[in-house]
Amino acid sequence: MTIADNNFKKLCTEILNSGNNTLGEKVRPKYADGTPSHTYFVNQVFEKYDLSKGELPILTLRQTAWKSGIKEVLWIYQDQSNNLDLLKEKYSITWWDEWDIGDRTIGQRYGATVKKYDLMNKLLKALKEQPYGRRHIINLYQESDLAASQGLHPCAMETQWSVRDGFLDMTLIQRSSDVAVANAINKIQYVALQMMVARHVGLEAGVFCHYVNNAHIYDRHIDQVKELISRNPQENGEKIRLVLNPDKTNFYDFTLEDFTMEGYTPVKPNLKFEMAI
Predict the structure, then answer these.
(1) Residue 217's closest CA among 7, 13, 53?
(2) CA distances (Å), origin 272, targets 66, 79, 81, 221
(3) In 3D, which of 85, 69, 89 has the Cα closest to residue 77?
């Protein structure tokens, strides 16, 4: 069982047993049939993993779509795009289609914000020129961008980067996290981003921290979550490794094929979750 498995079980148990809920309240998200999608939730969740010690935040209680997660990160930070056709044609990902604002984009969000403010290049340059600075931040929650168009507000909204003794540490800040569906994907995709950035600036990936301000389980996901909590995944979870091709160093040259997941055998069968939009 991995550290992420234990953290997932603990978090879900806390949400279901002692969390708050939005039942009876007016909520924004809805299911495909138009029914309001209510949540059970807790606030201010913090997890920490030392990648240099093999503490990979990978969930084995179910199959984590880590390849799709990495492709999404490449779309945001390499392509710096909000275009859904590019996401579909280049990466075969369509899960953002529900948030199409009508022009085959998700609005002035995510990759479009990275591009507008040149956030990725500024980060790479600053980490090389002043590694011990305390201003290495990518913030996707730009009010002018949110006002410029419709679209889902960024959930994984900020990364903060710090250097120490040859290691690059990173903190991912999320305003909101769908624990059953996206939480595990967000973890591993941002670890992949951390690994690529670390390689580009000549450092090793160090500590990955994950802060979620609102961690929630949707009301139509409860039975599946209880099933996941009951599972007993593989032993020796610390032997699972995400390996980055050692022959590449340029952030913009990395592709999905440069990542290999070793020793990963998640519990089956996988489960289906109804999307809240």
Answers:
(1) 13
(2) 16, 30, 28, 9
(3) 69
Does residue 135 have a known ligand-binding role? yes
Residues 6+ apart with CB under 8 A from 203: 127, 131, 163, 166, 167, 168
Question: 145 in helix, strand or coil?
Answer: helix
Q: Which residues contact 15 (CB under 8 A, 6 or more apart)?
A: 40, 41, 42, 179, 215, 216, 217
Which residues are identified as catalytic? 155
276 annotated as a binding-site residue? yes
- Count CB-CB contacts under 10 A for residue 53: 10
State the amino acid at position 194 in one-letter form. Answer: Q
* pTM of the predicted structure, to 2 decimals: 0.96
Is 237's pLDDT higher than 70? no
Please give the CATH architecture assigned to the domain spanning 3-24+38-229: 2-Layer Sandwich (3.30)
- CA 63-69-75 angle, to 5 degrees, is 160
What value does the mean pLDDT of the chain take? 96
Q: Where do runs of H (alpha helix) occur along the chain?
A: 3-18, 66-77, 84-91, 111-116, 119-129, 143-148, 183-200, 222-230
The reply, when asked if residue 186 is annotated as ligand binding, is yes
